[in-house]
Amino acid sequence: MTPLEGAPVFARMVVLEFPDMAKLRGFYDSAEYAPLIALRQAASEGDVAIVEGYRG
Q: Where is the DUF1330 domain (predicted)?
């Protein structure tokens, strides 16, 4: 697990699935998603982490 924001301790978990790590990083690091990160962080508290190989 690679934390991206906050502490890697989760009371609730939401899983988003991507075909591979490059696609996930392309989405998360994109200029299009940056304003949504700022909006989410302003409106809520939470932690974000990458879990490679998870199959839910």
A: 3-54
Count: domains in the chain: 1
| Residues 4-47: tens digit of each pLDDT | 777 666 677 788 899 999 999 999 999 999 999 999 999 998 88
- What domain range is 32 assigned to? 2-50
Question: Could you tell me which residues come within 8 angstroms of residue 41 by beta carbon, excluding any fewer than 6 positions away?
Answer: 5
Q: What are phi and psi of 35, to 5 degrees?
A: -65, -30
To the question of pTM greater than 0.85 for the whole model, the response is no
In a domain, 55, yes or no: no
